[in-house]
Amino acid sequence: MNTVKNEPGDNKSFLDSFFKLSENKTNVRTEVLAGLTTFITMAYIIFVNPHILMQSGMNSQGLMGDAAVNAGLNAINDPIVASVFAATCIAAAVGTLVMALYANLPFAQAPGMGLNAFFTYSVCLTLGYTWQQALAAVFVSGIIFIIITVTTLREKIVDALPHNLKLAISGGIGLFIALIGLKSGGIITASPATLVTFGSFTNPHAILTLIGITITAILMSRGVKASILLGILITTLVGIPMGLTNLSGISVISAPPSLAPTFMHMDFGGLLDVGKAGAVGAITSFAMVIITFSLVDLFDTIGTLVGTAQKAGMVDSQGRVKNMNKALLSDAIATTAGSILGTSTVVTYVESTAGVSEGGKTGLTSFTVAVLFILSLFFSGLVGVVPAEATAPALVIVGVLMMSSVTKINFTDFTEALPAFFTIAIMPFSYSIANGIAAGIIFYPIVKLATGKRKEVHPIVFVLALLFILRFALIME
């Protein structure tokens, strides 16, 4: 058990007073160590996020998808990829700092896994938006999130979506992320006969990915802290004798990369470019992108906050999270700032539970995480060394963790099971998070109306369903 011991000194007194350490029965040492633990468990994002976003065309050559990976554009000497790395660190620091100083909660923030995949694979690769337009969409969703957080709209949206669909969204994103990891690591490849199939296990890329998955799985199974980060680092080292880890031009400590290639590069006009879809099609497509960014961010953050706060005992008798509105507003501000800097949606990280488990109870924990993200800016050279085969296992493992929400879905009620199933299945099968969410929302009112359960469907769900139907009718030609 941690005992409160505030040593003499103005700094300690200030920290105790500002973060209310004594009131929360904690101390500086415990909070700083908790922050270090949280940072170590989520630091993998500074390696993974640039790898995912570069496939949206966020690289100097403008290559997208597999072409970007095959070209080796993860190298930090690419100015745009380097800028994404910097944006990732700074956005995480900004969001986490607001959480620390405004909400005084031990929760850390960073660009979200799943939402960065939606940014790249759905918005850019599937819908055809440029990364500049996608950043504009993230900015708009951040503003919307700020508005619905300071008004009653937030509660209405939370209440509108069925609980099982919220759980299915998390599970579906997990499956989708895992598929991306398996594909980028060469474990799963395209097949004209069966659509997808196993890759060649004599291929060194697939072999290294399998080694990485095995290493990370063993670490996770044994409960080793920072398993994902350690898995990335160890796999990177294994890739050296295999010739897949490029050490040429490595610089461990270097000046922070420039943000210029991505800072304020949002293209708002392109979001409403009618193109071939026509005015109505462009508007519905735009609305779908914004709604998806906003809803996934909203429910991802609420789920993380509630789950982590319950673990830390930071809920009242009614199950309400302490300073929930402040935490949500911190998240919204971070998303808006992240889009300006040049990265995808920022969310509250479930890895915050690692620090909470170590005794973190106040904003001093998250303040420590923010400082460590700033210090990470000086180690950008290490990011370019990490091969895609080392980050692919991280995607698979994160997918496994996100799938746990599926166990809470009520599959005994078919009117709940069908929409949840479509939400989960359509995401990987259509390679689109948005399509999965749309399918679930469309089928939910259909099966409820067919069984006389119209009262179980919130009017907002009917509006969303009609909007998504219009989107498919007008755009998916």
DSSP helix count?
A: 21
Number of strands: 4
Share of residues in strands: under 5%
Nearest-integer average pLDDT: 82
Radius of gyration: 22 Å
Structural class designation: mainly alpha
Order of adjacent strands in the largest pleated sheet: 1-4
Fraction of helical residues: 55-70%
* N-to-C SSE string, H for helix and E for strand: HHHHHEHHHHEEHHHHHEHHHHHHH
Main sheet specs: 2 strands, antiparallel
The dominant shape is globular
Distance between the termini: 62 Å
Q: Which spans of ≥5 residues are poorly predicted at pLDDT below 50?
A: 7-11
Walk me through this protein's architecture:
The chain is mainly α and 477 residues long. It has a domain at 10-166 and 193-288 and 329-404. 63% of the residues lie in helices and 3% in strands. It has 21 helices and 4 strands. The chain has helices at 10-19, 28-42, 45-53, 66-70, 79-103, 115-124, 131-150, 153-160, 163-184, 204-221, 227-238, 268-271, 278-312, 324-341, 352-357, 363-376, 380-383, 388-402, 414-430, 433-450, 459-475, and strands spanning 109-111, 188-191, 195-198, 346-348. Strands 1-4 form a two-stranded antiparallel sheet. A two-stranded antiparallel sheet has the order 2-3.
